[in-house]
Structures are given as structure tokens and as C-alpha cells.
């Protein structure tokens, strides 16, 4: 019994060594996800950024139709990469709204003229307050809000071409 | 003569306009008037993680989203919310990961209990080995 116990510290050390080695070889996923997934959309109201394009508010959701809410900015580079995918989603019939963080009307007009305009509404989120209220940690991020006004999915980062089909399927399922 | 008067008038105008402008802009880098509330906000910022530059607190980070969070924290504290309430609001949005002061819960209890357990174990080992020496 005593002799066996003698090996215990070495075994503990080996265990710790393996744990640290495992952590070094496979770094943790650092994506910060919103804790609001599967919860109702928080209450917010954003004014319009551009004349002729309505702003975004909580009461625009939950009317039976699922919608995408894209948190983005005209100054954000990955948002430009994402634009063609959003145009494809629009062509497939998915309604898309935007929370424009820290943006200007001029910058937005240029962006939409260059990369296309997939948005039905664009809310002006000057101080990123609504971005924080949504639990979003960067741009672009896309939330899928179902017909009952609940956040059912959060996509972190730009939507890639091969992810469009999955998002359309999720949007259909959210009806 | 006339030039300096114009300049003086402009400075006066800027001084009048500045507070109004400061009220409208974000509170990311503007201290609260009430020193006690500013101290509360500062202390809370030091324990909230920046979600973009993840080793830093929002108080230390230059990232835009950290500035927005500082502003949200100051606004809520100014409006009379307690730091604990603001922390809970942020945890509701980002999960426990957002705070450097994790609440005691199903996932975090080993974190809180381990030091106590280790201390007790250490004391027990020390006691038994001192006893052996005494004999």
C-alpha cells in the first residue's frame, strides 16, 4: 500500500503534464457567443440611418415571419466580403435588417452603392448600445429571429458562400 | 485688436458649447461628475473582460467595443444602477465569460471550493508530519 502511494505524486504530475500539453496543442475556441440565443429579442429602438429606409426596433419582430438581423458597419472589411452572400440570401427571399454600428450616412450610402443593398431596414446604432444589448462582440454578426420574436441562431463573423444554404434552411425552420 | 476679440469670442463660445457636446457624446472616456459613482464604474470596468482583445479588461482596452462598454457602464451607474446589477445585465448578454469575478454556480463551484479544499488538505498534511517529528 505504502509503496504504491509513492508513485502517486509522479502520476499526478503526469496527469497535469498531459492536461497542459493537450491545452497547448488544441487552443480553446475564443469566440464569444451571445447568451441570448433561444431567448426573446431584447427591447430596443434604433432610428433610421438613411432617409427612405426605416430604422429597426423590437416590435418589428415576432409577427410570424422570421428575419435576419445583421450587425455590421460600412467601415468593416469582412462586411464587404460578406455582402455578396447577403445579396444571395435576399434573392432567395430571406428578409434582412441591419444594425449599423458606429456608422455615418455617407459611409453607408457609399457601401450600399458599391456592394449592393440587401437590407429592408437599417438602424443607426451610434454608440454600439444595441450591439451590446444583443450580446454581440464584433462585426459582422448575424442573428436569426424567429416568427415569435426569439433569437434562434447567432452567426459570428462573415457568412461564407458555403454557409448560405444552411442559413436559408435555418430561416425556413424558424417559421 | 479685432482679431484677438474674435478669438476671445470663439473661445467663450467653445466653452459654452463644450458641456452640451460632452453630454451628447459617449461616456467611454469621460468621467462621471459624481466621484463616488465614477469610482464604482471604474471598479466595475476593471472586472469586465473586453470581448475583442480577450486578455484585457474594458477599462484597459483601446478597442472600440470596449469603449462602448465603458460608456454603457457609466451611463447605467449614472442612472442609479448598482455595479452588481450592471454586471448581471452584461452576464445575461455575454455569459460568465464577460466577468473576471465569476459568480458561484454549477460550473464555477470547483473554482471557489478548490483553494479551501487545498488549504485544509495542506493543514492536515502539515499537522500529521509535525506530529511524527515530535515523537
UniProtKB/TrEMBL annotation, chain A:
Major location category of this protein: other
Keywords: Cytochrome c-type biogenesis, Disulfide bond, Redox-active center
Residue ranges of every copy of the Thioredoxin domain listed in the record: 35-173
Annotated GO CC locations: cell envelope
Compartments where found: Cell envelope
Source taxonomy: Bacteria, Pseudomonadati, Pseudomonadota, Alphaproteobacteria, Sphingomonadales
GO MF assignments: disulfide oxidoreductase activity
Disulfide bond listed as a keyword: yes
InterPro entries registered for this protein in UniProt: Redoxin, Thioredoxin-like_sf, Thioredoxin_CS, Thioredoxin_domain, Thioredoxin_ResA/DsbE_sf
Coiled coil start-end: none
Protein name, as recorded: Redoxin domain-containing protein
Superkingdom of source: Bacteria
A Pfam family the protein falls into: Redoxin
Keyword Chloroplast applies: no
GO process terms (BP): cytochrome complex assembly
UniProtKB/TrEMBL annotation, chain B:
One Gene Ontology term of the molecular function aspect: metal ion binding
Gene Ontology terms describing biological process: cytochrome complex assembly
InterPro entries according to UniProt: C-type_cytochrome_biogenesis, CcmH/CycL/Ccl2/NrfF_N, CcmH/CycL/NrfF/Ccl2_sf
Coiled coil: none
Occurrences of domain CcmH/CycL/Ccl2/NrfF N-terminal (ranges): 12-133
Function of the molecule: Possible subunit of a heme lyase.
PANTHER family the UniProt entry points to: CYTOCHROME C-TYPE BIOGENESIS PROTEIN CCMH
Protein name: Cytochrome c-type biogenesis protein
Organism: Sphingomonas panacisoli
Organism lineage: Bacteria, Pseudomonadati, Pseudomonadota, Alphaproteobacteria, Sphingomonadales
